[in-house]
Amino acid sequence: MRIPFAELEGGIFEALVRLGLAPERAKLSARLTAETDRDGVRTHGIARLPRFADMIANGSIFPANEPEVVGSFGAMERWTGHRGPGNVAAYAAMGRAMELAKEFGLGAVALADSTHWQRGGSYGWQAADAGFAAMCWTNTMPNLPPWGATSPALGNNPLILAIPNGREPIVLDIAMSQFSYGTLTKYRERGQQLPVPGGYDAEGKLTTDPGAIEETYRALPIGYWKGSGLSFALDVLGAMLSGGLATHQISVDPARESGVSQIFMAVDPLSLGTIEEMRAMVAGAIGSVHAATPVDAGDPPRYPGEGTLRVREENLRLGVLVDESQWGKVFELGR
Amino acid sequence: MRIPFAELEGGIFEALVRLGLAPERAKLSARLTAETDRDGVRTHGIARLPRFADMIANGSIFPANEPEVVGSFGAMERWTGHRGPGNVAAYAAMGRAMELAKEFGLGAVALADSTHWQRGGSYGWQAADAGFAAMCWTNTMPNLPPWGATSPALGNNPLILAIPNGREPIVLDIAMSQFSYGTLTKYRERGQQLPVPGGYDAEGKLTTDPGAIEETYRALPIGYWKGSGLSFALDVLGAMLSGGLATHQISVDPARESGVSQIFMAVDPLSLGTIEEMRAMVAGAIGSVHAATPVDAGDPPRYPGEGTLRVREENLRLGVLVDESQWGKVFELGR
């Protein structure tokens, strides 16, 4: 079903207030969640709200807790999230990184002891829409085997890169696993094979069978040993700068995945260059990707964020596409 | 054959002086090159020197040119390399990023118009050995098809992350293609299949046959659409901050791949935390990876940089392993 954006945002807002968020914070969190569905990232919008409510109930998220600055040096700050709502804390941290970038050219906030930030891309769009380049990442519970192992010891640690470009910024939002378990389930339920290998089967062979990977829990890091190393390095760097938990210290129970470490870095490109030179260069780079010979005629390759704009426009025009039962659950939360 | 490190370094130094580098700069460049072979990255050590000499001869590299600061704002500087030797410029840029990090907690140098930096990992080790965390990357000529395309429009854009940890830092050095063309050739010449799919064959199917990929030029980005997006974002961000060329503006002739854009970012972790808390966290993270169930019993998974230390120790103890004909060529350079 499709519902108007304002109605979606309003329904989420009321649910979050019932769950204990102060109105101002519920308003921000509702907007970020509604924008996630608006942008077509339906795994990370209202679909995650029941888990959010469960984690408040089991003491993994404290809805009234706000992030606090615990250290500051030049262009860098260390914050602690006190396990408050993760998207509200992340939005504040990226906002502060942008202020630091305005002052120092670049700036960073390292946030410890936070909770699931929902869609990481939100903070990339936040920065790029305000004219900043940004990089941010979070660690997660152990849910991915390191290269050469069969048991999870790495997180899928989403990484976001954002580059301002007027109304059409470049926003990359990638987890370090080739597919999430949510995606594997979706393929299996539809009886479909994955488009590329996504993990290992019980015989230790690469497979495109989603069910086989769900059974072994041997999901694949992007680029095999390369994504495995990148996931590890992001985890350790995030925990080091924030002074927070590394992946191996986070609960392996998804319903208690709390206390994560996150990095928010912003750069003000206009501190060194002009908007004209940048616009021209970005237009050239996008043009070059669009001009590459497509695998399927008539379907040119896209740059990161390009597809989002199309989905967003459609969802704003026709109403945001949501799952009826997920939307129904929003009204039950906190009652 | 194996030769003592000092002899390797000395032979390279003399060749670089013959090629027109001033002694002080030849000394640094020779050390970086010798260390690359010492660390077992044989594709990027003396093996690249004949190409370096050719590029001086054809006017793509100017051996006497030094990098210059062209802009500065807070913790960020913009440099131009004037197409001097890439490793000398990169080393200076990372050094300056570390000075900025000492002052501001983090710092960055964006370097335009440079040349091939040889082994990117060199600048990660440089930072981590000095106690800094670092991230750096370079763009390259178009050598990788974007996801959804069959013709190259992206670079393989190596990305380096480094994390200090005493004598055993974490250093990740990954290109955005699953395998380099050099590696594909090596496998083909040995008559071996790739360990994982590395690109597409003439029928558009994923293949582990190195020769088939050399024919189609359809190498695979790490993580398919994910590495494709990451490569694009790194390219555009590097060109934007440095004011230099993006991949689509760089010559597609490998012998004239010059004018690349590079980013060097350093963070001083001790500006916010203590060395004791960091050491304990890193030890725990490494321990957790080592404790994961190995695919092959007795062969535990490794963290990025761990293998390098083993190779380095062996090469320092027994002499650095080099290819006899490549070593012979060093003595012919510049004559």
Query: What oligomeric state best describes the polypeptide chains here?
Result: homodimer
Largest interface: A-B, 86 and 86 residues
- Proportion in helices of chain A: 40-55%
Ends apart, CA distance between termini of chain A: 24 Å
Kindly name the structural category of chain A. alpha+beta
Order of helices and strands of chain A: EHHHEEHEHEEEHEEHHEHHEH
Which percent range describes the beta-strand content of chain A? Answer: 15-25%
What gyration radius of chain A follows from the Cα positions, in whole Å? Answer: 20 Å
Shape of chain A: globular
Alpha plus pi helix count of chain A: 11
Low-confidence regions of chain A: none
Biggest sheet strand order of chain A reads 2-3-4-10-5-6-7
Characterize the largest beta sheet of chain A: strand count, sense, and whether it forms a barrel.
7 strands, mixed
Average pLDDT confidence of chain A is 97
Instruction: Give the strand tally of chain A.
Output: 11
